[in-house]
Amino acid sequence: MSTLAPYVGALAAFLASLSYVPQVRKAWPRGSTDDLSLGMLTALTLGLTLWIVYGAIKGHWVIVGSNVVGAALAGAVLGCKLRDRKCHSHKRGTMP
Known about the structure:
Blueprint (H helix, E strand, L loop, with lengths): L4 H14 L2 H7 L10 H21 L2 H32 L4
Helix pairs in contact: 1-4, 2-4, 3-4
């Protein structure tokens, strides 16, 4: 049964990482991130990045691989949020 563990972990990580794809698709158009929390996106991206470091230290490819995908997608949404926040502040004449 322990020989299945890496495959179960890889499938779980793959599916969890894919869960960010719909959010990226929704956030991609300009001005579409108003309902997203900047703090949550920052914490999530940082947390996933730290999981990459942890996985690398431990030598666990499933942890590294899944969190690289998750961090990249969460980082893309964070980037969209920052883009939209900057765009909105310029329209109002204020700085973020």
